[in-house]
Amino acid sequence: MARHVHITGANRGIGLAIAQRFLAAGDAVSTIYIGDAPPEPIDGIVGDVRDSEAVNAAMDAFEAKHGPIDVLVANAGITKDGLLMRMTDEDFDAVIGVNLQGAFRCVRRASTSMMKKKSGRIILIGSVVGLMGNPGQVNYSSSKAALVGMARSITREIGSRGITANVIAPGFINTAMTAVLTEDVQKQYRDSIPARRFGEADEVAGAAFFLASDDAAYISGAVIPVDGGLGLGH
Ligand code: NDP
């Protein structure tokens, strides 16, 4: 049966690749995004994941069309890199706002539908740097590390209701987010990855599709790395 999969930021990058996996399986995909509209047949509404009212209203509208959300992928994320001593309050708060608070607002709304159905899959897109750390990313790595605590608390709180919550921790993936890195920095990163290459968005999508499948019903509170071995299990 077709599922209703809600993916934040499914208009491009990793979110779009995840959407395409579920669409290919015949599922309905909805998304909240900010910039360019997603391609058909993804059902999109412009909204900011930091805005609870916008999130709740969009999910109400999507559920009226596609039924209760079966799978939530909290994917929307930003970076605002800078060294600790020069990092502004604005840059710290903006990254925590989208990556952590935004994920919370979406999870809170989607979980109300999942609780009623007594089933659901929550997938949070973290990062390898959430557990490894990275210079220049105190804001970003803090926001991604917090998603691990979020998934584990959700697991303990509502795991008995047929709901799982997991984190996917991608390494360096070829998207707009990594395209902004200089060739030197990209080479430095590539040399540190055991697979010696960046990943593709579709490789992250494969992990998300698996976590939403029946085969993953007994996996919860886990961190699944998709990083070419960079984090070695972290
Ligand atoms: P992109 O920059 O390509 O896409 C980010 C997405 O997030 C866009 O769809 C964007 O929408 C959406 N978004 C940003 N802010 C908001 C907001 N306030 N409200 C709603 N949507 C928002 O990034 P990636 O595809 O590379 O990254 C996707 C996720 O994967 C992120 O959480 C990122 O941290 C994570 N990740 C990425 C890695 C990589 O190497 N690329 C590595 C590890 C983790 P819009 O286009 O409308 O602005």
Key terms for this structure?
7-stranded parallel sheet, Rossmann fold, 234 residues, alpha/beta, binds NADPH dihydro-nicotinamide-adenine-dinucleotide phosphate, globular
Q: Which sequence of SSEs, written as H and E, runs from N to C?
A: EHEEHEHEHHEHHHE
The top-level CATH class is Alpha Beta
Note the overall shape. globular
Mean pLDDT: 97
Domain count: the total is: 1
CATH topology: Rossmann fold
Distinct ligands, ions and cofactors found in the model: NADPH dihydro-nicotinamide-adenine-dinucleotide phosphate
- Helical content (DSSP H or I, runs of 4+): 40-55%
Compute the CA-based radius of gyration. Answer: 17 Å
Let me know the CATH homologous superfamily: NAD(P)-binding Rossmann-like Domain
Low-confidence segments: none
Please tell me the CATH architecture by its name. Answer: 3-Layer(aba) Sandwich
Distance between the termini: 35 Å
Q: How many distinct beta strands?
A: 7
Strand order, main sheet: write it out.
3-2-1-4-5-6-7
Strand content: 15-25%
Structural class of the helix and strand makeup? Answer: alpha/beta
